[in-house]
Amino acid sequence: MAELTIVRPSAFKQFRVLLGKELRQEFRTREMLTSMGIYALLVLVIFGAALSQAAQGFDILQVSGGLIWALIVFTSLLGLNRSFSSEKEEAALEGILLMPMDRSLIFLSKATSNLIFLLLVELISLPLFYFFFLTISSPAPSFWMASLPLLVGSIGIAGVGTLLATITSNARGKDVLLALLFIPIIYPLLHAVVAATTVVVVGGDNLVGTFATSLALAGGYDVVMLALSWFLYEFVISN
Amino acid sequence: MDPILSEIYQTVLGAAPYVIIAYALMWMILLVYVLIMVFSLKKTEKQMAALTEELRLRQKG
Amino acid sequence: MTDTVAIAPDIHLALAIQAEGLGKSFGSRKALDNVSFELPEQAFLSIFGHNGAGKTTLLRVLSTLARPSAGKVEVLGLDVREKPEELRSRIGLISHRSMLYPDLTAEENLLFTARMYGVQNPKARVSELLELVELTARRHDPVRGFSRGMTQRIAIARALVPDPALLFLDEPYSGLDPHAVEILDRLLERLRFGKNLVMISHDLNHGFALATHLLVLAQGKVALFTERDELDVRSFREFYRNSVGAGGI
Amino acid sequence: MRERTIFDSLAWMALLLGALLSTAGFVLAFTTAPMVKGVDLQVFAQIGGVHVDYQLLFSQKIFYFHMPVAITSFIALLFTAIYSIIFLVKKDPKYDLRARIATEIALVFVLMTMASGMLWERYEWGVWWTWEPRLTTYFILTLMVIAYFILRRALDDPERRATYAAVFGVIAAVNAPISFLITRIIPTRTHPVIFRTDSGLPPDMLLPLLLSMFGILMVAFGIYRFRLREQRLRLQLEDLKAQLED
Question: What is the complex's ipTM, to 2 decimals?
Fold first, then answer.
């Protein structure tokens, strides 16, 4: 047999290999992306029905921030629920736990891949949202700034969601359980990013103030909760 | 009653049922928890007694 | 095959596993209770016992998947509590679950593992292993389409990627057809030279035939630890029946 | 059998004293404590020698218990987090038991807070529900505490159950103040009424409030200890049963 040389790879290299594995799996089957995309589309259809009786003068801009985040939260739940199915199917997670590595890399790679998938779905579904609901109204010219709260919010969702999805992947009735754990925990972030998104879409006088405050608070939530999730992940993953 | 006094006390009568219900509810929730606890304790003690009895019989026999 | 994970020359690895008063408990539940044994190098240990006797827990503790709550365990001279990462690079585990990603191909699965361990020139290593388990022809097929036996062979190749000095096997035969059993037997025969093997088995005859050492667990305690040559299979069966019970034979 | 610790004997005293103190606080709240000023009136009267030209707010009496109960629930949740962290470090199931019972106490007091708060709000604001910061935070808190118990039920392996519950307990305890902070700083657009909590209470009002505060804290402590004893007994029973089966 050939000479076998083993050099312990750097954490960053292992992170890249782990992330590469996640992406390769997903782009092979596209299971998560397709189901999240279709689900997002269906949520838009439901929004259509929900708003169909609203009065003529009804200002859709006022609620658009909230609707966008409702769409994102529900869609992300679907993805998060699936994110550990490939690890559980043949106990592949145990194989990873047997590897010589820093175990928080598992959290980091899963959270990153979840974030990437979530952003991809947002990239498809949010233009659709605009197309379906906002073409008749005129969003404030600052609406492109919504990408900032979208990014900050998605990071928080992916981070906290990954920790909670790991917990529920070992539990009975995991789909409902994840929603039950996830939504109350994510609520403060949601409150902040909805405010930030709405204010840039609607426009108005105190735009900058509200936007900056909400965004700063959402960022603060991300920092605290991601640090906490990172710290607690070791306990969740090893038994 | 004096119209001025009745004006001053106007909210008292209206609020009274809410205040009473609020206190009643608080005590009731606490009471329910305590009751659950007591019943659970009674049950455990009963089982414990039965088990000790069984253990005693076993050691004899 | 050489391994550049350097071992200081003054550490002499006389023992593959050294367990002293090993315990794994949670509250009053004791999965493992005061387990002590010493397994020399180059041994093949078969672990027997009923369901819930603590076999899998023992294997998980030895392979650093679970932390012991009492006692001291050294595997390959490394304390499982203090140096788990170092130990992990020197052991492999084959269980009845393949630990593979069904949607990735056989080659991708092995490449992923090789890169994670830091194998230099991973492609060559993977080709070599695929040859060893005789699945070179199927290297580009997703594992999902494989039969149970083929999947298990890839799982074995996966465990062998870093050329572990100690290989754990958790009921590797369960669910295999006779042909796959044959291949696994052949592989184990080849592997046992220069390696340590620890296997959980339900099959008394099989486990006995392969082993150099036997360990019987009952309710988390060691009921028997001995070299195989001290016993013949009949008296071992008898012992097992008397001490542990009739089940599992 | 486990030894009875000093805390077990303290539990009786705490419960008794707590009941006494909170009853005293309750009585004083309705007798000596003056009523809070409401809307100013054009008219006035002399009541007990005091010049009164405003409406008297009776509904504020709810706060003599509402506030202590709310604080107690937060303290209970704090203990959930503390015991959860100790459990994660030591992996000793006795801390898991403590964390679980602290969360039970938190649930009871959160429910009490919600019930009394909603009644006050129904009278003062005329609605049963509004997304006001404190209410929202308490609602989120209720959901998290309920989720904590549902999570426990969904896990079979005792060690895993304890670990995951501890992790979630810590997250929930950290999330509660964050939730309050964020909903407070970024108010909803239609904010109904500002809270009428007067800063600097006169001694007549402070005394019953403090009495109920200490009383309710002691009651909570007493109940916690009893529940702990009861659950320990139950665990011993389970052990005995398991031993008999072997």
Answer: 0.90
**CATH label of the domain that carries residue C227:** 3.40.50.300
Q: Which of C26, C69, C219 sits opposite D158 (nearest CB)?
A: C26
The Cα–Cα gap between C119 and A9 comes to: 9
For residue D47, count other CB atoms closer than 10 A to its CB.
12
Judge whether C51 lies within some domain: yes
Count of alpha carbons within 13 angstroms of residue A109, beta-carbon side: 23
For residue D45, the SS3 value is strand
Q: List the structure tokens of C206.
A: 């099989």
Helix (H, G, I), strand (E, B) or coil at A203: coil
C103 closest CB neighbour out of A86, A96, A100: A86
Chain B residue numbers with beta carbons less than 8 Å from the beta carbon of D138 are none
DSSP β-ladder status, C221-227 and C78-79: unpaired
Is D57 within a domain?
A: yes
Q: Is residue C239 part of a domain?
A: yes
Q: Do A4 and C100 touch (CB under 8 A)?
A: no
C189-215 average pLDDT score: 86
| Mutate: best of D15, D35, D103, D108, partner B, most B CBs <10 A | D108
Number of structural domains chain C divides into: 1
The domains of chain A are located at: 27-45+60-237
Task: For chain D, positions 72-101, list CB contacts with chain A under 8 A.
Answer: 88
Q: Could you report the per-residue pLDDT of C32-90, keeping only the tens digit for each? A: 999 999 999 889 999 998 888 889 999 999 999 999 999 999 999 999 999 999 999 99
Asked if residues D99 and D77 have their Cβ atoms less than 8 Å apart, the reply is: no
Model confidence at A187: pLDDT above 70: yes
- Residue-number span of the structural domain to which D166 is assigned: 6-245
Report the half-sphere exposure of A101 (CA within 13 A, side-chain side). Answer: 29
B11:D241 CB<8 A: no
Do the beta carbons of residue A97 and residue A239 sit within 8 Å? no
CA distance C15 to D77: 49
Instruction: Give which of C126, D143, D70 is closest to A1, Cα–Cα.
Output: C126
A183 in reach of chain D (CB within 8 A): yes
The pLDDT tens digits of the residues spanning A57-95 come to: 788 888 999 999 999 999 999 999 999 999 999 999 999
**Closest of D225, D224, D231 to residue D9, by C-alpha:** D225
Q: How does pLDDT run across C93-126, given as a tens digit for each residue?
A: 998 899 999 999 999 999 999 999 999 999 999 9
The two structure tokens encoding residue D57: 């707010």
Q: At D105, which CATH number? A: 1.20.120
Residue D120 lies in a domain: yes
What's the confidence (pLDDT) of residue D37?
Answer: 66
* pTM of the predicted structure, to 2 decimals: 0.90
Look at the alpha carbons of D138, D140, D142, D148 in this order and tell me if their dihedral is positive or negative. Answer: negative
Residue segments in chain D with a per-residue pLDDT below the cut of 50: 1, 190-199
Provide the pLDDT confidence category of residue A197 given band limits of 50, 70 and 90: very high
How many domains is chain D built from? 1
Check: CB of residue D97 under 8 Å from CB of residue D228: yes
With contact defined as beta carbons under 8 Å apart, do D167 and D74 qualify?
no
Residue D1 within a domain: no
Q: Which residues of C touch D239 (CB under 8 A)?
A: 28
Helix (H) or strand (E) holding D54: strand D50-57
Q: How far is CA D223 from CA A142, A147, D45, D87, in A?
A: 55, 50, 47, 22
Q: Is residue C74 part of a domain?
A: yes
Question: Is residue C218 in a domain?
Answer: yes
In a domain, D106, yes or no: yes
Residue A174: its chain D contacts at CB < 8 A?
Answer: 154
Whole domain around residue C74: which residue ranges? 1-89+212-249
